[in-house]
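Q: Fold this one first, please.
A: Sequence and structure below.
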Amino acid sequence: MIKKITLIFTILTSMLFSQEKISIDELLKSNFDNLDIKIEKKSLILTKEDVKNIQTLANTKVGSKIVRYYKVTKNEEILGNAILLKQRIRTKNAAILYIVDANKSMLSTEIVSFKEPSEYKPNKEWTEVLNGKTSEDTLMAGKDIPTISGATLSARAISDAARLALAIVEQKL
């Protein structure tokens, strides 16, 4: 009996927390409307001075000194960058891809992985609020970014990471 309950619980839990696989290359191609773009996967190691400057600009803490980003080009012209950041939401992490155009303006925010229950995951309409924002914008949940009823921590974490992504692009890319 206990084995059956455990099995049912395991199946239900895996269904509740299941993740659809999203290709970062496909996300970038769809956001830059071009299949002929070149995508380079890169890493950036931040110095102590970089961390200090980025934290000051973003008004939030840098979670890791190693930043994964993707440089998007076409015919040697930089179209933009995508910053992949891991952010703790409540007790689990989410991976969010912030796509920034060549003018250092947020083009799109894509939640690549979300380990919290799905009711805490912001919908596409909410993430689109970040589109067009730059490091000049406040991007504070509850101020110029709306909170999400029942998912305030998600809104706060994703908007904090958006400020980090824009600060990294502004300072380092």
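Q: Good. Now the second chain.
A: Here it is, same layout.
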Amino acid sequence: MEKEEKTDEEMLQEFYETAAEDIMDKRAGDIPIIDKDADLIDVLSVLNVSDHVWVVESKGSKKLVGIITEHDVLHILSPKKRIPSVGVPDKRSLPYSSFEEASHLMSRDPIKCEPNEKVGNILDKMITRRIRRMPVVENGDIIGEITLHHLIRKLYALIKYESQGNIE
């Protein structure tokens, strides 16, 4: 018996209703993580193979405290420093030598999602906050991550599966 094809709207709705835990990268060894006390050379070592690294409280801990991206490093390496005329200077105005450990460079309190959070809500957060990746956090601990690439892969799989005519 041939299965009835879903409309584009039905496929999108199914995609939006998918839980984070069904898409996230669950392989702990594949998620770039470093402790907040790690020195700059360790941070750069991770960023040498990944475009970001999640920062946790300490070695052996999964308590998420921040994120460092290539973009963060770009700002500290820039020869032109932005000095604010009012208020507290941000990390982009400080000299490279000010960054001795991960906690000095990281962006604190990254936007996160929970394992049961739906893709539709995650996409809204990503678009609103202009981010490409999000940690999946349970009780303050990072248990996975969702990237724009993961979402594209899931949507592609749904569309491809439906377009192959699914005969049961």
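Q: Anything worth noting on the second one?
A: Helices lie at 8-16, 40-47, 70-77, 102-105, 119-129, 148-163.
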